[in-house]
């Protein structure tokens, strides 16, 4: 909570510092943000990197509708090695702010996947690169696995983090119960006992109340809300107070739109076969998208290459909680595959 209070008090100062910190002055650098037309809707993207010819990292954010461009300062060191693209999905962030509810239409996973593919195709033309690295986080990992399975030709690899996974053994329920007991969260425990272990029977109000209590139990690692999202949002030089209001409005709107699909996602989309390398970099103490269920899902995956890596002392939103380790894993595990494919392509051509 102290991080949040400090962020509110020193908002303007932190914004000025981050604006200076984010400046890119290298000769071949790129720092662009714009609305682009995707399926007849203005959708917002940002493109940043110290060398626009470096491999592209395309982020698919979670939420639903939790735009990740607020985290740009946390990923500043990554921009030496990658060109990073953030995309505010339909119903999210600045895209929602531009279009509002009336023009946002129905939000579905299929629409988000199709729009995401269109954005990638735009980036291929804009940056002159045929492929990129796809990173899907939290709810974005569900969009990510669908994008990767439908259009493997667009990506060098899929990197899942905070990977949403099937949970037939209700591991998440047991971990939540243990967390509530350990933290003496009686309200959370009573809620969980009332709701039962099958999340498919919960309504959206139940689900939101559960997540609110669960986040309160996160103590020994960076808390996704009070240590990461809110401080980053308040200190972002790219986000006005109007943008922040739109951020939350978009989350409320998109959560309602996607809730039923989210609860039954793996009833319809059990993606285990991929035609590209698959990596899962997961926080070692994540109880929001439990580490154990992500590992179980990983073991079912068939891919030409796959690796599971624990991000130490991290819970949910591991790449923002521990960006240095996450970058190290990208450079040592994913980038060699990218370079090898680029080399083979150049030799063939």
The helical percent reads 40-55%
Distance between the termini: 55 Å
By DSSP (H or I, 4+ residues per run), the number of helices equals: 14
Percent in strands: 15-25%
CATH architecture: 3-Layer(aba) Sandwich
Rg over CA atoms: 19 Å
The CATH homologous superfamily:
Alpha/Beta hydrolase fold, catalytic domain
Give the H and E element order.
HHEEEEHHEHEHHHHHHEHEHH
Structural class: alpha/beta
The total count of strands amounts to 8
CATH fold node name: Rossmann fold
Main sheet properties: 8 strands, mixed
Major sheet: order of its strands? Answer: 1-2-4-3-5-6-7-8
In CATH's first tier, which class applies?
Alpha Beta
Shape: globular
Report mean pLDDT, rounded to a whole number: 93
Low-pLDDT runs: none
In the residues, how many domains can be counted? 1
InterPro entries: AB_hydrolase_1, AB_hydrolase_fold, Carboxylesterase_BioH
Protein name: Pimeloyl-ACP methyl ester carboxylesterase
Pfam families: Abhydrolase_1
Domain AB hydrolase-1: 55-321
What does this structure look like?
This protein has about 350 residues and is α/β, with parallel strands linked by helices. It has one domain: Alpha/Beta hydrolase fold, catalytic domain (Rossmann fold), CATH 3.40.50. Helix content is about 50%, strand content about 15%. The chain has 14 helices and 8 strands. The protein has an 8-stranded mixed β-sheet with strand order 1-2-4-3-5-6-7-8, with helices on both faces. Strand 7, helix 12 and strand 8 form a beta-alpha-beta unit. Helix 6 runs antiparallel to helix 7. This is Pimeloyl-ACP methyl ester carboxylesterase. It holds the Pfam family Abhydrolase_1.
């Amino acid at each position: 909570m102290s991080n949040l209070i400090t962020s509110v008090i020193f908002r303007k100062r932190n914004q000025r510092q981050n604006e200076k910190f984010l400046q890119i002055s290298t000769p071949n650098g790129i720092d662009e943000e714009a609305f682009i037309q995707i399926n007849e809707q203005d959708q917002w993207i940002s493109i940043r990197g110290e060398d626009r010819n470096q491999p592209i990292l395309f982020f698919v954010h979670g939420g639903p509708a939790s735009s990740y461009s607020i985290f740009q300062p946390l990923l500043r060191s990554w921009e030496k090695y990658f060109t990073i693209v953030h995309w505010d999905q339909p119903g999210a962030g600045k895209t929602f702010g531009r279009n509002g509810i009336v023009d946002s239409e129905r939000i579905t996973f299929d629409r988000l996947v199709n729009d995401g593919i269109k954005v990638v195709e735009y980036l291929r033309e804009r940056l002159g690169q045929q492929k990129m690295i796809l990173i899907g986080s939290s709810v974005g990992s569900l969009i990510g696995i669908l994008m990767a399975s439908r259009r493997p030709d667009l990506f060098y690899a899929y990197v899942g983090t905070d990977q949403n996974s099937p949970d037939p053994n209700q591991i998440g329920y047991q971990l939540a119960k243990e967390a509530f007991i350990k933290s003496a969260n009686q309200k959370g425990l009573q809620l969980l006992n009332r709701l039962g272990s099958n999340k498919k029977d919960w309504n959206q109000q139940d689900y939101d109340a559960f997540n609110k209590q669960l986040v309160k139990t996160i103590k020994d690692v960076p808390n996704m809300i009070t240590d990461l999202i809110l401080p980053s949002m308040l200190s972002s030089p790219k986000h006005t107070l109007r943008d922040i209001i739109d951020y939350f409005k978009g989350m409320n709107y998109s959560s309602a739109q996607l809730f039923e699909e989210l609860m039954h996602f793996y009833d319809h989309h059990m993606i285990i076969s991929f035609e590209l390398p698959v990596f899962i970099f997961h926080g070692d103490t994540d109880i929001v998208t439990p580490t154990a269920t992500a590992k179980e899902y990983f073991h079912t995956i068939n891919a030409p290459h796959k690796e599971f890596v624990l991000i130490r002392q991290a819970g949910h939103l591991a790449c923002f909680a521990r960006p240095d380790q996450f970058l190290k894993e990208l450079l040592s595990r994913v980038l060699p595959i990218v370079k090898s494919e680029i080399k083979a392509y150049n030799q063939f051509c």
